[in-house]
Amino acid sequence: MSFSSSLHILTRPRWLSLMVIGFCLGYAIIVLTRVPRWGLAPLMLAWIGLGLWFRWGAAHKMPRSAATRRWPWSLLPIALWGLYLYLTESFGIVDLSAVFFHLQAGMADHGGVSRVGAAFFYILSMALLLASFTWLVRHDCHWHRGEPLLALVLLASNPLLYGVGQRGAALVTKPGAWLERQYVEPVILEAPREPPNLLLMYLESIERTYADRERFGDAYADLDAIGERGLVYEGITQIDNTGWTMAGMIASQCGTPLMPAGLLHDRQFSPLEKVVPGIDCLGDLLSAQGYRLTYLGGASIAFAGKGLFYEGHGFDRVLGREELQPLLDDPEYVNNWGLYDDSLYDFALEELRRLDAQDDPWGMVNLSIAGHAPNGYPAQACLDRQGEFDGVDILYSVKCSAWLARDFLERAEAEGLLNNTVVVIASDHLTMRVSAWEALIEGERDNTLILLGPGLPNERAHREATMIDVFPTILEAMGFTIDWHRAGLGVSLLSDAPTLIEEHDKEFLNDRMREETALQERLWEGLAPSQPEAPEPEPPEQIVETPDDATGEAPAQVQ
Fold first, then answer.
1. From its phi and psi, is residue 394 left (phi > 0), alpha (psi between -120 and 50) or beta?
2. Has UniProt tagged this entry with the keyword DNA repair (predicted)?
C-alpha cells in the first residue's frame, strides 16, 4: 500500500472519528491524572487499537433509517465533561462555590485574556468530538445500543454535577447550622492605649509550600528572610470556600468561609450590591476604633465584588486599576489584570506617607499580582534583576513577588513609615494550576502567614489552622482584647485555645460546610427576597346553636 493511499484511508470518516475521540480521551486522562503529556500519543494509539480490534464503525453497520434516527443522548454529558476539564486545567481544582460567587459578584474587568486561546481550543475540540461521536453512534450498532447507558455514566461521574447535586441534597434533606453555632460575633472588648497601625500584604498565590528548597530552590528565599525577624506560622491549610482571592480575603478578615449568596440573592441575574453585609469584619472593627483604612490592588476593584466588599466594610479609600493606571508615568505599562507589582508598591509607599502624616491610626491592605496562575506577571524590575522570563516558569514569578514584597518593606522601614505598625504578610489562597503543579501536590500544602511588629515573638510556630484563624490573630497581634480569643469562626493563634481544625479535622469542617444554611443566611442577611406580609386573619365568626342564643352584643373584652 502506497503512502498516499494510507493517507487517503486516514481521511475516511471512520478513522477521523476514532482519531478525534482518541485524542480527546487521552487529553482528558492527562488533565485528570498525573500521566505526563508525552503519554498522549500512546493513549491515542491504544484507543485506535481497540477500534481496530472491535472493528468499531466498520463491521456493525445499521440500517440507514436507524443510523439517522436520533442524536446521541451523550452529547450534553460529554459537553459538560469538556467544561469540567477546561476548569480543571485552568485552575487545578474546580471550586463550584467560586464559580457561583463570581457569576453573581461580577466577572467583568478580569485578567483572563490569556485563557482566550485555550477556550477557543476547547470549543473547537468539543465540536469535533461531538461530531465524531455522533458519527460513530450512527454507524455502529453496538455503540448505538450502549450509548444511553454511557450517557448516564457520564452524568453520574461528572464532579461538576456531583458537587451541585450533593449540595442540593444536603440543603433539602439536612439543612445545617453547625457552623452558625460556632460563630462568635467579633467584638473588641478593650483597645491598647496607643493602638498600632496595620499593614496587611496579600501575596497572590504565594503559598508557604514554595519554601521547600529541595523542590523549589530559592524562589521563596526573600520571604524566609523576612520571617527570620518575625513570627512565622506553619500549617495554615485551606478549607472549602476559602480557595480564591475574595474568599481568602474574607476568611482572613471576617473569620468565615465565603459561602456564595446563591438563591438568597433576590435578583439572580443582576450583580450583587453588597458583599457579606450581615457580618462585621476587620475593617468594620478598626473603623469603629478611629482607623483610616485604604485598600490598593493592581486589578480592577469591580472584579468579583472586591470594591463592594471594602467600601461596605469600613474602608475610606479603595484604589484599583481604574484609579491608579492614569497616574502611571507610562499608562501602557500594565498586564491583563492591571498594574505590575513594582508600580503598585510605589503607589503603596506614597499612600503610607499620606497616612503617616495624619494623627489617626491607619490600616492599609494591598494585593500583589506577580504570582497569579498560571504563569504569573513578573514586573520589569524583576526582569532587570532576574533576567529573561520564559513566560511559563511560575518559580520565576514567585521569586519576583517575594523580592518585591521584601524591597517594599525595606523602603518603608527606611523612611520610618512602619513605626508602631503590625505587618502581616499572607498568601490569599493556595495557588491554582501552574508549571510547578506536580511538585506542589506531592505533599501537604499550606499558606503563608508572617507577622512583624512590636511585642511579637521572633520564632516559627506550627499550628493546625486555616485562613479563618488569621482574623482574630491580627486583632490580638495589634493588642486588642477579644471575646474568648475568637472572632467569627476563627481562633487567635497567639492564644492556647484550640482552632476548629485542631478540635475536628479538615474533612469534618468541609462536610459541615456542604450542608450549612444558617451561616450562609447570616453572611448575606438583607439580600434574601422580601416576603410579602401575610394579611391579618379575620376574627372567626361566632357560632350559636339557635337564633335565641344570639344577643347582638359584642363579646366582652378581657382586661
1. alpha
2. no
Q: Is residue 510 part of a domain?
A: yes
Give the type of residue at 13. Answer: P
Closest CA to 366 of 311, 303, 299: 299
Q: Alpha-carbon distance 360 to 289, whole Å?
A: 10
358 vs 317: CA distance, rounded Å: 15
Buried b (16+ CB within 10 A) or exposed e, 62-83: beeeebeeeebbbbebbeebbe
Question: pLDDT (tens digit, 9 = 90+) per residue, 434-474?
Answer: 999 999 999 999 999 999 999 999 999 999 999 999 999 99
Do 14 and 154 share a domain, yes or no? yes
Q: Which residues pair with 427 in a beta bridge?
A: 203
Give the Cα separation of 38 and 45 in Å (integer).
12
What is the number of domains present in the chain? 2
188: which strand partners? 482
Q: What is the CATH number of the domain that holds 352?
A: 3.40.720.10
User: Of 13, 42, 10, which Cα lies nearest the Cα of 25?
Assistant: 42
* Whether residue 352 sits in one domain with residue 437: yes
Neighbours of 496 (CB within 10 A): 8
Is the backbone peptide bond immediately before 374 cis, with ω within 30 degrees of 0? Answer: yes
**Pairing relation of β-strands 317-319 and 231-237?**
unpaired
Determine the Cα–Cα distance for residues 55 and 44; give it in Å rounded to an integer: 16
Identify whether residues 254 and 302 lie together within a single domain.
Answer: yes
- The model's pLDDT over 24-59, given as tens digits with 9 standing for 90+, comes to 888 888 877 767 778 888 988 998 889 888 888 876
Judge if pTM exceeds 0.85: no
Would you give the DSSP letter of residue 531? Answer: P
Closest listed residue to residue 232, CA positions, set 491, 497, 473, 475? 473
Are residues 288 and 159 located together in one domain of the fold? no
Closest CA to 39 of 54, 49, 24, 29: 29
Which helix H or strand E contains 168, and what residues bound it? helix 159-173
Q: Is 289 exposed, middle or buried (0-12, 13-18, 19+ CB in 10 A)?
A: middle
Contact between 463 and 235 (Cβ < 8 Å): yes
Helices (H) and strands (E) in the chain, counts: 24, 12
Contact 446, 220 (CB under 8 A): no
Compute how many other C-beta atoms are within 10 angstroms of the C-beta atom of residue 349: 14
Identify whether residues 267 and 119 lie together within a single domain.
no
Place of cell 523542590: 215
What lies within 8 Å, CB to CB, of 553 at 6+ separation is none
Instruction: For 190, list phi and psi in degrees, rounded to 5.
Output: -155, 140
Give CA separation, 184 vs 196, 256, 319, 451, 514, in Å. 24, 10, 31, 24, 20
Residue 367 backbone dihedrals phi, psi, to 5 degrees: -130, 120
Selection from 362, 394, 361, 364 nearest residue 378 by Cα: 394
* Closest to 257 in 3D by CA, of 528, 488, 529: 488
One domain for residues 395 and 286: yes
Q: Dump pLDDT digits (tens) for 209-256.
A: 999 999 999 999 999 999 999 999 999 999 999 998 999 999 999 999
Domain of 122, in residue numbers: 10-173
